[in-house]
Specification:
The chain is of the alpha+beta class. The chain has a single domain (10-172, 183-192), classed as Roll (Pnp Oxidase, Chain A), CATH 2.30.110. The chain has helices at residues 22-31, 70-77, 119-134, 148-152, 188-192; strands at 35-41, 44-50, 53-55, 60-66, 80-92, 101-116, 154-169. Strands 2-1-5-6-7-4-3 form a seven-stranded antiparallel beta sheet. The chain is elongated and about 70 Å long.
């Protein structure tokens, strides 16, 4: 048995029953606190965890980093990018070793990475990040507005989304051995995990 991801579109899951629709993907993007951005430098992959926000209007993801560093270098030289975020639930015990699992929802996004240099756009994107994470606090009231000096110390990025897919693997239980193949799992394991 072999699997060739190039025979299907890049955003297609192997298991159709677990596919998330666009509305579910947007909800997970809005609800998730940390995403992972994967870039490269020649053949060397590089991944970072980051805060982010998704713009429904522009169908783009935004995040920031320090003004200098590997992510900035990679963005300037190799625009291909992959983004991932997930939520996890509880562990799922089973009396079949390879059926043990975990509840999760995840998103994979493929696209191009761009550095935003325009100060007004940078400020707007950074304020979007603040709104996602600290939406009840108001700039100029609860905290001072972003300064020009802070903008100069910060790189701001957009991921222009080409393709995305989501997977919802959130069963209540996993498969258990049947037909006396192995004794039933002790119910205590379902309470522990």
């Amino acid at each position: 048995m072999s699997y060739d991801p190039n025979k299907k579109p890049i955003n297609r899951s192997r298991i159709d029953d677990l596919v998330m629709d666009d509305k579910q993907i947007v909800k997970l993007l809005n609800d998730t606190m940390v995403g992972h951005v994967a870039t490269r430098d020649k053949k060397q992959p590089f991944i970072i965890p980051t805060t982010f926000w998704y713009s429904r209007d522009k169908h783009e993801i935004y995040f920031h980093s320090n003004a200098f560093g590997r992510i900035r270098y990679n963005a300037n030289n190799y625009p291909e990018v992959c983004f991932e975020c997930f939520q996890s639930g509880r562990l799922l015990p089973s009396n079949i070793p390879l059926e043990k699992s975990i509840q999760y929802k995840s998103i994979m996004i493929f696209g191009s990475l761009f550095v935003i240099d325009d100060p007004a756009k940078k400020k707007k994107i950074l304020n979007g990040l603040l709104k996602k994470y600290f939406g009840k606090m108001k700039s100029g009231k609860d905290y001072r507005p972003i300064t020009d000096s802070e903008l100069k110390q910060t790189s701001v990025y957009k991921i222009q989304i080409d393709h995305w897919s989501g997977k919802n693997n959130w069963p209540e239980k996993t498969e258990q051995a049947e037909n006396n193949e192995w004794p039933d799992l002790n119910p205590k394991w379902f309470e522990i995990y």
